[in-house]
């Protein structure tokens, strides 16, 4: 391909994951699905959960989850602007104070930097979420980070069919 030829998507099948963890350990997969079910029934806004899933997946460089949740967010009515600005959410006015608190909480829990979650981050999250909502939000972050680790560790390609 020369520099004037536009890139196209390959029609070749995606490579297989290193390990088909769904088949190898149905119990582990069922445990992850059970966590996801609790998150899905948490009462938190679907749009908020998709932003959290996408942001954690960006941080973790999880191609499978980025593709999956980008499409889910679009299907749920999320705008292109909010999706492409997500990695720079702190500099963008496109997010509500509640979403911003959730995204900061997501980043701090996903990265677990040496300073861990600051009191300021907790106070911001607590100002926008009840205690129960904060527990549910934390479970959502734990769950997407778990899915990311399975997909990144086993190199699950986008749209892989196990």
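^ structure tokens above, recovered residues below v
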């Amino acid at each position: 391909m020369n520099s004037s030829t536009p890139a196209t998507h390959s029609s070749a099948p995606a490579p297989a994951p290193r390990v088909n963890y769904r088949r190898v350990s149905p119990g582990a997969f069922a445990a992850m699905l059970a966590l996801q079910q609790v998150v899905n029934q948490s009462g938190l806004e679907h749009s908020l959960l998709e932003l959290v899933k996408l942001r954690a997946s960006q941080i973790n460089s999880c191609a499978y989850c980025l593709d999956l949740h980008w499409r889910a967010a679009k299907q749920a009515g999320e705008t292109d602007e909010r999706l492409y600005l997500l990695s720079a959410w702190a500099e963008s006015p496109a997010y509500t104070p509640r979403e911003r608190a959730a995204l900061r909480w997501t980043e701090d829990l996903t990265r677990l930097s040496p300073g861990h979650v600051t009191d300021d981050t907790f106070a911001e999250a607590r100002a926008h979420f009840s205690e129960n909502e904060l527990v549910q939000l934390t479970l959502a972050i734990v769950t997407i980070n778990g899915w990311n680790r399975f997909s990144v560790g086993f190199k699950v390609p986008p749209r892989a069919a196990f």
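The chain has a mean pLDDT of 91.
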